[in-house]
């Protein structure tokens, strides 16, 4: 469906610019790592809006790390969202979930220090917050991210993704004010099967994308993030 994450982000940006009413003073919140490449392109399309991160981690199922048992986000306070059906299916007990949650929070803290230390963080209160990832499977990480951002008081909360199964989009309808998904499709080969280039971003690439977006936002009119309309 997509050449790479940048192309997917450009196409998402076009759709987001067409929303009515327009997004006012948007901030783009990417889910690292893969979502940062999509989010950088979205931020550029929205008039070089500020690009920030939601530090959220998937909790993988026992023996199946790619299957999302749930997710944890470390915002104002750590919040865990579980997929009850996956928990029941895999038989994950409370001890396993506690260990996996602790490991996820440790990685979140590592990323916070590496990606965000010294960077100004925009306040979403009263603004449009756009949560971006490179695709959804169960939606656990997106749900956790939306919960965390909702607590911070944005005037409008939008979820924007290139691809996700229809049932995942339906399950997330109540979590965001709007959802923009370019392709509601089953993903039998995973999210990576929807991209020609789906290389794994490393820390250095994430930092380069954040630095470039910050420089572009500083030079944009009004410091970036004006009306997307």
UniProtKB/TrEMBL annotation:
The keyword Lipid metabolism does not apply. Pfam families: Pribosyltran (PF00156). One of its GO terms (molecular function) is glycosyltransferase activity. CDD domains: PRTases_typeI. Residues 24-188 form the Phosphoribosyltransferase domain. Keywords: Glycosyltransferase, Transferase. Signal peptide: none annotated. This is Phosphoribosyltransferase. It comes from Caldovatus aquaticus. The lineage of its organism: Bacteria, Pseudomonadati, Pseudomonadota, Alphaproteobacteria, Acetobacterales.
């Amino acid at each position: 469906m997509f050449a790479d994450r940048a192309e997917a982000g450009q196409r998402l940006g076009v759709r987001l610019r067409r929303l009515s009413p327009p997004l006012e003073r948007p901030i783009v919140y990417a889910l690292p790592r893969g979502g940062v490449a999509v989010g950088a392109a979205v931020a550029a399309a929205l008039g070089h809006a500020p690009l920030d991160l939601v530090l959220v981690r998937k909790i993988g199922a026992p023996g199946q790390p790619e299957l999302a048992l749930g997710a944890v986000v470390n915002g104002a306070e750590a919040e865990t969202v579980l997929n009850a059906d996956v928990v029941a299916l895999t038989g994950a007990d409370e001890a396993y979930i506690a260990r996996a949650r602790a490991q996820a929070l440790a990685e979140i803290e590592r990323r916070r220090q590496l990606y965000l230390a010294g960077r100004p963080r925009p306040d979403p209160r009263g603004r449009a917050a756009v949560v971006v990832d490179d695709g959804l499977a169960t939606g656990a990480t997106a749900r956790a991210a939306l919960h965390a951002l909702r607590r911070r008081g944005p005037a409008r909360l939008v979820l924007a993704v290139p691809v996700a199964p229809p049932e995942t989009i339906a399950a997330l309808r109540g979590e965001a004010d709007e959802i923009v998904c370019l392709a509601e499709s089953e993903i039998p080969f995973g999210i990576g099967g929807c991209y020609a280039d789906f290389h794994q971003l490393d820390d250095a690439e994430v930092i380069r994308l954040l630095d470039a977006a910050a420089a572009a936002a500083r030079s944009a009119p009004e410091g970036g993030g004006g009306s997307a309309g």
